[in-house]
Design a protein that fits this description.
Blueprint (H helix, E strand, L loop, with lengths): L4 H8 L11 H7 L9 H14 L4 E2 L16 H4 L14 E6 L4 H10 L8 E4 L5 E4 L10 E4 L2
Parallel strand pairs: 3-5
Antiparallel strand pairs: 1-2, 2-4, 3-4
Helix pairs in contact: 1-3
């Protein structure tokens, strides 16, 4: 698939509603237009995961877990910070998700196995029961898929 942003968003619409990918504050204010705050590389990587690599339903925001995609300045996780906070989540470059019928370690293994498929470098958080994936470029890191400890 060519990396046409509108085509990516249309394709993702088969699997996700934008309110699953952004915080409730963002969705309440911008609705469907909230797609504008999500990075194109992130959206493309999410589509690759859903259609080609993991091929199973994935859940981002659900049942009381509402800060797993884009986070705004009104989100509790952001408001509680007492220092500069520029995470990949607030930049629209990260999602946390679970995969139906697959544990996080298996999902991370598949992502690493398919590293060459990604259009950009991808970061994965180690040792958590969900998958944190982001496309935030890291100075000095050249690995296509890079695992980090938060």
């Amino acid at each position: 698939m060519a990396r046409d942003r509108n085509a990516i968003i249309r394709a993702l619409g088969k699997y996700f509603h934008v309110k699953e990918l952004v915080c409730p504050h963002c969705y309440a204010k911008w609705g469907q237009k909230a797609w504008q705050f999500l990075d194109t590389d992130l959206l493309y990587c999410l589509l690759l995961l859903r259609e080609t690599i993991i091929c199973k339903p994935m859940v981002v925001n659900y049942n009381g877990h509402w800060q797993r995609g884009l986070r705004c300045n009104m989100c509790d996780l952001v408001k509680s910070k007492t220092d500069v906070y520029l995470s990949a989540h607030v930049l629209g470059k990260a999602i946390d998700f679970n995969v139906q019928g697959m544990d996080a370690n298996e999902a991370r293994r598949l992502i690493k196995l398919h590293a060459p498929s990604f259009p950009c470098n991808v970061r994965l958080e180690k040792g958590v029961s969900w998958v944190h994936m982001d496309v935030l470029s890291q100075y000095g890191i050249k690995d296509k898929v890079y695992e980090f400890n938060a």
